[in-house]
């Protein structure tokens, strides 16, 4: 069998053992029945484990609270997160989206262990009938959302990006070319843009259409996929292994973004989330 490279979280704070150890910890708590069906209490249990046993690189209360406030303001019908890890954001944000009247929450995760742990904790929180997990490389799951017409109105209202920073730009480019991000409708939030850092992503979402066209010229290779409509192309030819190579997709430079960085202090440094609104489309 050929070796499969898994392009996901490389650092030790995201290993499988921490995730499964968390699961054992939560389901062994003496107050488990008090936690069941209560998203806030499940989040509290995950935080307790991270603070007292093994550190988990979740979005956390401060940055997560900012996203929850955004959800309450925007009331997204459909939210998609890229990167589930242990389900922390799916629980925190899925609960907020449901409370705000939202209809869909999709969590995209490449690692089946993380997806399984997340699913169990999401069900424990009482969100099992609302949060849906797609297990595959995230660009493939984005293609599936478009190919199978899974999104209401074919669009993502709020996209939360929190997986491997090296994949932030390539996966955003796929979402752009699939037409999932709509002017005046969509907002993109990305975590960890300072630490560990996603400078290429920040550069892309703060660039003008002209600047982005120059970047795409520099990034172009003979293998770049050039089609009039990526959605039509994958509906005709399929997607995933042996189908359309989604790693050869470049972004849509015509989308106009407005981006703000919201910084948060850490013990010896700082991190930030970026909030990007899709405000227009240049012809």
TrEMBL record:
Organism this protein belongs to: Talaromyces islandicus (Penicillium islandicum)
Any single biological process term in GO: catecholamine metabolic process
Pfam families (alphabetical): Methyltransf_3
Family named by the database record: Belongs to the class I-like SAM-binding methyltransferase superfamily. Cation-dependent O-methyltransferase family.
Lineage: Eukaryota, Fungi, Dikarya, Ascomycota, Pezizomycotina
Gene3D superfamilies listed in its UniProt record: Vaccinia Virus protein VP39
Superkingdom per UniProt: Eukaryota
Molecular function, one GO term: O-methyltransferase activity
PROSITE patterns: SAM_OMT_I
Entry keyword set: Catecholamine metabolism, Methyltransferase, S-adenosyl-L-methionine, Transferase
Membrane-traversing stretches: none
InterPro entries xrefs: SAM-dependent_MTases_sf (IPR029063), SAM_O-MeTrfase (IPR002935)
Record protein name field: catechol O-methyltransferase
EC number(s) recorded for this UniProt protein: 2.1.1.6
